[in-house]
Amino acid sequence: MEVDRKRGMENMLSEDDWLVKETAFNPKKINYYETIFTVGNGYQGTRGALEEGFRGGLSATYLAGVFDHYDSAVVDLVNAPDWLSLRIYVDGQVLDCNTCKIVAYKRTLDMKQGLLHRHTIFEDPAGRRTRYESIRFASFAQQHISAMRVQLTPENYEGDIILESWLDGHRRNLDRLPQYLEIPEFPVETKWEKWATSKHLKQTASIIKDDSIYLEMKTLDRDHRIAYAASVNVEGAIPARSGRQEYEKVGEIFTFYAKQGKTYQFDKMIAIGTSRDVPVETLQNSCMDWLQEAVIMGFDACMKANTDSWDAKWEDADCTIKGDAEASLAMRFNIYHLLITANENDPKVNIGAKSLSGEGYKGHVFWDTEIFLLPFYIYTQPETAKALLMYRYHCLEAAQENAQSNGFKGSQYPWESADTGEEVTPKWTHDGKYRIWTGEEEIHITADVAYGVITYFIATGDWSFMLEYGMEILLNTARFWDSRLEHNADKDRYELNQVIGPDEFHEHVNNNVFTNWLAKWNLQKAIDYYELLKLEHTASMAKLTARLNLSDDEVADWLNKVENIYIPFDKDKHLIEQFEGYFNCKEEPITEWDENQMPLYPKDYNHFTAQETTLVKQPDVVMLMYVLPDEFDDEIKRINYEFYEQRTMHKSSLSPSIHSIMGIEVGDTSRAVQYFQRSAFVDLVDNQGNTDMGVHAASAGGTWMCLVFGFGGFRVMNQQMTFKPWLPEDWGEIKFRLKWKGDRIEVTLTQNSINFYRRTKSTEILTVLVNGTAAALPPNSTLETAL
After folding, report:
1. Which residue is catalytic, options 133, 416, 423, 504?
2. Which of 17, 172, 240, 634 has its CA 20 to 30 A from that of 515?
3. pLDDT computed for residue 179 by the predictor
4. Is 504 a catalytic residue?
């Protein structure tokens, strides 16, 4: 069948307000685009690498939950086999961006459908021009399936063409980057040679069949099995097909004689499975069955199913801004990456700091999930939020072991975790120069996990989760704080010493206010829900307390500590002290900013030497007021925001979004817009210079929070939905959607009004507060309120 070359795949793409475009080939930006053009479906993420490869590229596919240690410095999210690999030769000359002239080049990420499109015209050294077009996706409808379509047209010649389609298991993870305070600019081709590499995979099977190929690898430490099956369908020619096996690779080779001006189409379908999904003994058959189902459906039907799944997700998650097209596109970009990195179907995986788009932080899970990512999922994809919290439940035993090894009771969640829930924070920088103390001292994450549990429960009313899983987390984390608190007999108070707060410039501090306050909150919530469940779910609570050997006397002791935990606070100035002694640190004012309006370190200071100063990496106190908005009045919020804003370096991508939200809350609206821009575009414009190592997942979540919690003014206060919105002058309207206890609430906000449409199965009226005034939302109806 001859393919109509006029039907170009660009016609498959959505409207421009859903598209992120790369309009020229720039080798220096190749790794940046690999990150932002990642396609994924929560099960896997594949960086936007060129199919034919590029010298200096950093191609990778990551499978959620597939970690390994072996010879790496710490546990890695494994760089799994590559399914993209496609090499094309014209009369023996390879077509790639290293050896050919690039006459035309454009790539487009279609966020609405989860597609990556590419159009390239190669001119080889002999002057032959070949038009190359491709489109790829990882299916949300069939999570084990990925697919790629390629169309090839000889524009000014005819001749022999060879197409090689590979499954490539010869992969390595980056490891042990040299420590640079200011990273020098390396040549593109050798940039990654500055890293050591680690090996995690070994081939266990390689099979060539009549119509498909199969590759199976295993991880060397964890012994996970990873299986890929692939099949290529050709239209426009009847090529000679052969198979080829190389070291840790298996391929299909297609040879045919190409006519000038004729378009040839290749559909590559890929099935991916692991022993995390199915038993090892059935893995090959399962993988081949998934592939066969996809092949029978065909590329177009698989893409349609994927698009339909994306439509459903965007129906719940889309946010738009009228009056600022760039900001609206940035919102969708951040939401796109949030959608492709979480797997609602797997309760034993979580989200790494760089999602499934890069190797930064080795794929490890931090407090980012509970504080910056969960809000998006709780209020738009609650089933996904539940799956993320279930990861913490499945890691509860490891958290208990972590507490015991440190001499404490209950469950102490690790600062960095991977697949098992054990502490995997490295102890030294790669050059061995600086000690990393976060694994021992940044203990607030235990309360952050409890915070995620309570936030989810309040928004969903999911009693089943709370009774079966959430309460056990809450009680075990409370037990940890009960044992970790130290009694200061001289001052008759309880303290937490030798800790690190979110501001990681200051180590080994005593009574960090974020840590102390969250520990107090964690204990109080455990007490509150313990008393509530004893009354309303007596049988379930009796079973749980018996299993935990928890008594009323132990809980009473928690209350005594709650009432006596020390909180550093200057009552005269209404200033919350970040940690005991912070006000005595050296004042070192910020006087310079870079081209992205990011603060520059004062002379002679860096991340490792700022401890003696009042400079902060990210603000513990402002963060605390954001996390617990009920517990601070407006004056306290304003005074502390103004004090700490002047001292914050924003050396974490987590920082700007919180400042944007709190800036709106205290009336610093001009800075709020500036901080929103920093957060929203951290990856789109690479304003921190490290997007090549993966997207900033927490910043993506923070950007959603900026729009919804900041400009939209949505906060949960005293377990009730409240709205106190504010919009920049050039924004005509914003729209977003929220899930609340089974309801779906569409919010449209203008300069003068806020409009709610509530979809629900309930017959009851929902009351929300708008600027402090109660508004009643009847079932399945619209309410407009003037502002």
Report:
1. 504
2. 634
3. 65
4. yes
